[in-house]
Specification:
about 75% helix, 5 helices
Protein backbone atom coordinates (compact mmCIF):
# COMPACT_ATOMS: atom_id res chain seq x y z
CA UNK A 1 0.00 0.00 0.00
CA UNK A 2 2.79 2.45 0.89
CA UNK A 3 4.55 1.61 -2.38
CA UNK A 4 1.34 2.35 -4.30
CA UNK A 5 0.90 5.69 -2.52
CA UNK A 6 4.51 6.66 -3.23
CA UNK A 7 4.23 5.58 -6.88
CA UNK A 8 1.06 7.61 -7.27
CA UNK A 9 2.56 10.65 -5.58
CA UNK A 10 5.60 10.54 -7.85
CA UNK A 11 3.42 10.06 -10.93
CA UNK A 12 1.21 12.98 -9.85
CA UNK A 13 4.26 15.17 -9.21
CA UNK A 14 5.62 14.38 -12.68
CA UNK A 15 2.21 15.09 -14.21
CA UNK A 16 2.04 18.37 -12.31
CA UNK A 17 5.44 19.36 -13.68
CA UNK A 18 4.15 18.71 -17.20
CA UNK A 19 0.96 20.70 -16.49
CA UNK A 20 2.95 23.63 -15.12
CA UNK A 21 5.42 23.59 -18.02
CA UNK A 22 2.60 23.61 -20.59
CA UNK A 23 0.75 26.37 -18.71
CA UNK A 24 3.86 28.54 -18.48
CA UNK A 25 4.64 27.93 -22.17
CA UNK A 26 1.09 29.09 -23.00
CA UNK A 27 1.56 32.18 -20.82
CA UNK A 28 4.84 32.98 -22.60
CA UNK A 29 3.36 32.31 -26.06
CA UNK A 30 0.23 34.41 -25.58
CA UNK A 31 1.67 36.94 -23.13
CA UNK A 32 -1.06 36.22 -20.62
CA UNK A 33 -0.69 36.51 -16.87
CA UNK A 34 -0.97 33.69 -14.37
CA UNK A 35 -4.40 33.02 -12.95
CA UNK A 36 -5.12 34.58 -9.59
CA UNK A 37 -7.84 32.04 -8.83
CA UNK A 38 -5.64 29.52 -6.95
CA UNK A 39 -4.62 32.20 -4.45
CA UNK A 40 -8.25 33.31 -4.17
CA UNK A 41 -9.29 29.72 -3.38
CA UNK A 42 -6.65 29.53 -0.64
CA UNK A 43 -7.71 32.91 0.74
CA UNK A 44 -11.41 31.99 0.81
CA UNK A 45 -10.81 28.57 2.38
CA UNK A 46 -8.44 30.03 5.00
CA UNK A 47 -11.00 32.68 5.94
CA UNK A 48 -13.82 30.10 6.02
CA UNK A 49 -11.92 28.00 8.59
CA UNK A 50 -11.04 31.16 10.54
CA UNK A 51 -7.29 30.96 9.89
CA UNK A 52 -6.68 33.83 7.47
CA UNK A 53 -3.30 34.06 5.79
CA UNK A 54 -1.23 36.55 7.80
CA UNK A 55 0.39 39.72 6.56
CA UNK A 56 -0.74 42.66 4.52
CA UNK A 57 -0.17 44.14 1.12
CA UNK A 58 2.47 42.58 -1.09
CA UNK A 59 3.70 40.21 1.64
CA UNK A 60 0.23 38.68 2.03
CA UNK A 61 -0.30 38.58 -1.74
CA UNK A 62 3.01 36.72 -2.16
CA UNK A 63 2.03 34.21 0.53
CA UNK A 64 -1.32 33.60 -1.15
CA UNK A 65 0.36 33.16 -4.53
CA UNK A 66 2.81 30.63 -3.08
CA UNK A 67 0.09 28.77 -1.18
CA UNK A 68 -2.05 28.64 -4.33
CA UNK A 69 0.85 27.08 -6.26
CA UNK A 70 1.57 24.62 -3.43
CA UNK A 71 -2.11 23.67 -3.32
CA UNK A 72 -1.96 22.90 -7.04
CA UNK A 73 1.06 20.66 -6.53
CA UNK A 74 -0.75 18.94 -3.67
CA UNK A 75 -3.86 18.35 -5.78
CA UNK A 76 -1.71 16.92 -8.58
CA UNK A 77 0.02 14.50 -6.19
CA UNK A 78 -3.25 13.44 -4.52
CA UNK A 79 -4.90 12.76 -7.88
CA UNK A 80 -1.85 10.67 -8.81
CA UNK A 81 -2.22 8.65 -5.59
CA UNK A 82 -5.96 8.10 -6.23
CA UNK A 83 -5.32 6.98 -9.81
CA UNK A 84 -2.56 4.62 -8.68
CA UNK A 85 -4.77 3.12 -5.97
CA UNK A 86 -7.55 2.58 -8.52
CA UNK A 87 -5.12 1.11 -11.05
CA UNK A 88 -3.68 -1.33 -8.54
CA UNK A 89 -7.21 -2.27 -7.46
CA UNK A 90 -7.92 -3.37 -11.03
CA UNK A 91 -9.33 -0.24 -12.71
CA UNK A 92 -7.01 -0.52 -15.71
CA UNK A 93 -7.76 1.17 -19.00
CA UNK A 94 -5.98 1.56 -22.30
CA UNK A 95 -3.34 4.28 -21.98
CA UNK A 96 -5.26 6.87 -24.01
CA UNK A 97 -8.48 6.39 -22.04
CA UNK A 98 -6.68 6.35 -18.69
CA UNK A 99 -4.91 9.56 -19.70
CA UNK A 100 -8.19 11.31 -20.53
CA UNK A 101 -9.87 10.04 -17.33
CA UNK A 102 -6.90 11.10 -15.19
CA UNK A 103 -6.77 14.53 -16.82
CA UNK A 104 -10.51 14.99 -16.35
CA UNK A 105 -10.23 14.01 -12.68
CA UNK A 106 -7.42 16.53 -12.14
CA UNK A 107 -9.35 19.21 -13.98
CA UNK A 108 -12.44 18.59 -11.85
CA UNK A 109 -10.32 18.66 -8.68
CA UNK A 110 -9.04 22.10 -9.71
CA UNK A 111 -12.14 23.64 -11.28
CA UNK A 112 -15.00 22.43 -9.09
CA UNK A 113 -13.77 24.09 -5.87
CA UNK A 114 -13.29 27.47 -7.56
CA UNK A 115 -16.75 27.27 -9.09
CA UNK A 116 -18.38 26.11 -5.83
CA UNK A 117 -16.68 28.94 -3.94
CA UNK A 118 -18.04 31.42 -6.52
CA UNK A 119 -14.58 32.52 -7.62
CA UNK A 120 -14.97 31.62 -11.28
CA UNK A 121 -17.84 30.60 -13.50
CA UNK A 122 -16.73 28.12 -16.19
CA UNK A 123 -19.98 28.75 -18.11
CA UNK A 124 -18.64 32.21 -18.94
CA UNK A 125 -15.21 31.05 -20.13
CA UNK A 126 -14.16 31.69 -23.72
CA UNK A 127 -12.96 28.97 -26.05
CA UNK A 128 -9.36 30.06 -25.43
CA UNK A 129 -9.96 29.82 -21.66
CA UNK A 130 -11.20 26.25 -22.04
CA UNK A 131 -8.27 25.27 -24.26
CA UNK A 132 -5.79 26.73 -21.76
CA UNK A 133 -7.44 24.58 -19.05
CA UNK A 134 -8.08 21.36 -20.98
CA UNK A 135 -4.75 20.92 -22.79
CA UNK A 136 -2.48 21.09 -19.71
CA UNK A 137 -4.81 18.77 -17.78
CA UNK A 138 -4.87 16.22 -20.61
CA UNK A 139 -1.08 16.26 -20.72
CA UNK A 140 -1.03 15.92 -16.92
CA UNK A 141 -3.25 12.87 -17.36
CA UNK A 142 -1.00 11.37 -20.03
CA UNK A 143 2.12 11.76 -17.91
CA UNK A 144 0.52 10.64 -14.66
CA UNK A 145 -1.39 7.64 -16.02
CA UNK A 146 1.54 6.65 -18.21
CA UNK A 147 3.87 6.54 -15.20
CA UNK A 148 1.32 4.68 -13.06
CA UNK A 149 0.86 2.05 -15.77
CA UNK A 150 4.56 1.79 -16.61
CA UNK A 151 5.59 1.28 -12.99
CA UNK A 152 2.87 -1.21 -12.06
CA UNK A 153 4.00 -4.61 -10.93
CA UNK A 154 3.11 -7.16 -13.55
CA UNK A 155 0.95 -9.92 -12.18
CA UNK A 156 0.93 -13.31 -13.85
Amino acid sequence: MIRTILRGGVAGAAGTTVLNAVSYADMAWRGRSASGVPSQVVDKLARDVRHPVPGSGETRDNRLSALGALAGIGVGCVVGVCVCLLYDAGARMPWWWGSVATGALAMAAADVPMARLGLSDPTTWSGADWVSDIVPHLLYGAATYGIVAATAERRS
